[in-house]
Amino acid sequence: MAVMTESALVRRRGLGRRFGGNKAMTLSIGVLTLFVLVALFAPWLAPHDPNAVSLANSLQGTSADHLLGTDQSGRDVLSRLIYGARSSLLGPLGVVVGATLLGVTIGVVAAWRGGWVDTALSRAIELIFAFPGVLLAILLVSVLSAGLKATVLALAIAYTPYMARMTRSAALSERHRPYIRALEIQGFPAVSIIVRHLLPNIAPLVLAQASLCFGYAMIDLAGLSFLGFGVQPPQADWGAMISEGQVALLQGAPLSALAPGVLIVCAVVGFSLIGEGVADRIRRADR
Amino acid sequence: MTTAPPSTAMLAVEDLTLAVRRDEDVKPILASVSLSCAKGEIVGLVGESGSGKSMTLRTAVGLTPAKADISGRVQVSGLDVLGASGKELSKLRSRTASMIFQDPRAHINPFQRIGTFLCEGLRIHQRMSKEEAARKATGLLDEVGLPDPARHMRQYPHELSGGMLQRVMIAAALASEPELLLADEPTTALDVTTQAEIVSILLRLRRDRGLSIVLVTHDLDLAVSACDRIHVMYAGSIVEVASAAELARAPQHPYTAALFAARPSPDRTELKAVSGRPLGLYEVEGGCAFAPRCPKAIDLCQETAPETRLVDGHQVACHLASEPPVQPVGPLTKGERP
Prior knowledge:
The complex is a heterodimer. Chain A is mainly alpha-helical. Chain A has twelve helices and no strands. The radius of gyration of chain A is 23 Å and the shape is elongated. Chain B has a single domain, classed as P-loop containing nucleotide triphosphate hydrolases (Rossmann fold), CATH 3.40.50. Chain B has helices at residues 53-59, 86-96, 104-107, 114-125, 130-143, 149-154, 162-174, 192-209, 220-226, 244-249, 254-261, 299-303; strands spanning 9-22, 25-38, 42-46, 68-76, 79-80, 97-100, 180-184, 212-217, 229-234, 237-243, 308-311, 314-317. In chain B, the strands form two sheets. In chain B, strands 6-7-8-3-9-10-12-11 form an eight-stranded mixed sheet, sandwiched between helices. Chain B has a four-stranded antiparallel sheet with strand order 2-1-4-5, covered by helices on one side. In chain B, a hairpin with a 2-residue loop joins strand 9 and strand 10. The A-B interface holds A 115, 177-179, 181-189, 192, 196-197, 200-201 and B 61, 63, 66, 89-95, 98-99, 101, 103, 106-112, 120-121, 124-125, 172, 176. Chain A: Residues 85-275 form the ABC transmembrane type-1 domain.
């Protein structure tokens, strides 16, 4: 036992994983907490009205009044970034919550019932998998009109397979563990076993996957905003800001497009690191 | 067989035959198993791994493989288990019969406190209030002899030893005030002194609560010391049934005799293993399932399966059983498979 622990420690140290991983995760949590706080307290933090157009002041560089300059409509970039954090974080949150609720339900039912129910649900999931999420979003936008709601709904459906597939495999291995069997033999109703035992015990895995999906959803939503399907002007959104900043970029005022880009990268990397970190801990605990 | 009339038998299995279907393949698991356990009786079910002991036990609470051909009758406290509805089965499992398992650590949710684990059944099945359930659970832990019930209620499974956890599992099984306790190798994973304690708890429960117990084990000595009657199982059939004392005194079936001879004992220097390996029922090709390993097998044994007969109070399925009791079996040599 002692030997095993020792070698495991050596290996981890060799990869620089044990402490490096934790540091990256702590940093990520810190950065993302900051983003969330900024989004929550946007009205108090923003120095200017994010939608106040002032064409005379368009495309200014950094100054004391406009720390990150202004965009081509003369709006304060920093204020738009601060307000943009709201839709940029709420959007992926909606996607992840929707996909998790739907995916976990499908995954658990498939794993628990098995047989033809499992086969039918799994095939249905693969069908959605085969359909590109962005295409689905464009389809829904054409039906529901452009905006955050339609794109979030579309991506929630598109991300469901990722959650469902992971949940199904986790629930399947948990379902066949003896303690679940024992609970069945004790005559507990299936719903109570699932809610009180199975779900809490696979929750960390679901959380890790949801965190990874959050990052991807953010990129997709930003992409859709960039293409003009997501958040509509003049509302501030990081993806939309990049789109609007294209011209500015060419005119030699890159900040209005670069700054939201940097924030998106930070958020996505942060969520990925958290997801990886949680998954890593689960793997380590399973060893 | 001398199955007690269903009215007094807590558990009555009659002529149970079970085969698992997989695609076009049919794999027989149990052949005409009969077993009974009267109220307040401790019945042993002994046999090697894969002989169908656990499958028989699981059938008693209606847990059969999804795709299986089953015939025969299984009754628990008057309920026809094989024909029971889902509702009746769930009542059977949550009220009448409880089960304990070989490896308590695997059979208890590792992420829940002992108290939560014990109270869940009380609250769901018996609709007790939180306080009532906690009081009852603490009482149960005390009844199975745990030293500090109040503290154990707050502990997690990994904080308890295997023996203590097995007591917790027995406490959980008792929570529903069952009449029948199905014990699936409850002592196999425990050390010898703990085994003795668990067995003494089972004996005390029978005395105090009038509990009927079916004890599945592959430990003959344990079965002889704990049980009233013992069923010996081989390749999905019961080969011998006798009272524990009678079985130990004069085993009639060569397989039972070989099992007794294979026990380790301080005054024996050499272990006498039963040669060959245990067969599954599906591997048996006509004749007696034990014939390939039997030192006394005659031609008849290879050809026809023996009927069960009554010899000296033993029910025994062996062509040679009417002969004088099988003498101590030497090292078995004839171990080739047919």
